[in-house]
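Changelog-adjacent note: as of this version, every example in the card shows the full chain rather than a window. The one below runs 384 residues end to end.
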Amino acid sequence: MSFALPQMIRDNLRWVLIGGALLLVTLIYFLFFASNAAEGQGGPGQGGPPPAIVTLAKIEKLALTPNFTAPGDIVANRDSVVASEVAGRIQTTLNIGARVRRGTVIAVIDDRTIRLARDQARAEVARLQSDLTYQNRLVGRLQQLLEEEAESEASLDEAISTRDQTRARLAAAKVALETAQVDLARTRIRAPFAGQMVERRIEVGEYATPGREIARIVGREGSEARVRVPIAVAGSLSTGQEVTILADGEQRASRVRTVIETGDEVSRTVEVRAPMGSHNLKMGSAISITVPTGIERDVLTAPRDALVLRDSGIFIYVVNPKDKTAKRVNVQVGEPAGDRVAISGQIAAGDMIVVRGGERLRDGQNVTWDDGKKPKAEPEQSAG
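Full-length structure tokens:
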């Protein structure tokens, strides 16, 4: 039985053979070079990815004190809303942002009505003083006449009573005069301390009444760092205890001025304040305070950059310097210590760990690094 090729193939058999040969050569070429490329990616004598270039550091044992860092802000220890003590129309006020000293006039109230009350009280005092002078003389004459039996005791008693009443009215008039003078002074509303007028709560032409807010004054001297810490942490704090304040990227040492005894029922935190000292930061600037929460103890630490954070947990890569492989080790993170952090797990002091290049490592992968050792120069051979 014979097999006959189709007429079209017989007519183009030459080209079909040439195309098949080219296809076979191409297939052999790709298979050969793909195999060589796969072999070239492996380590010495084995397949797999090439060694990863990493940067190493050592696990070190340090003496650390457990601490807690809380965010907060800078507040002035003097922040006052100044109010009016008398009624009247506002005539002038300082501009917002004005720097003031203690006693600087920040607003003026129309004082015409109070001046009239003062003048009236002054006139009343003068009248009563004149009456009292006359009645003192009258009592003296009546006492002399009574001794001469030329006047009755009833007349003397009446004169003494009138004089005493005048004396009491004079005392009341002097109080009214002093009150008018105090009210007159209160028409000049003054800053209670040195600082800055940060708010103006009344404008020229508005009518002020006793208790009406005029302006807010904030003092710069004696500013403090204010934070809220959990009640459990606050139990280890006491007045005078040293804390570290981080403000505007700079650390400064301070001491706890006070721990407010009453905590917030919702957040379960208490307020802690510490002096800021001299600075150029604005009130309300964000800061953080680190407070100690325990006693000093020796712990293993690693650079923060060595930690690899994943959904499955936190781990580091420990490098075996003999076979240059990286082993993944799960760790638990503890207290921070500058650019390092306390860790615990199956690690030991002196272990070499990856601090750069660990994001894409795989457990057991080969690594390479620059150990800083330079090759020794070969001695030059003398000619001849």
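Structural remarks: Residues 52-64+297-368 form a domain with the conserved putative lor/sdh protein from methanococcus maripaludis s2 fold fold (CATH 2.40.420.20).
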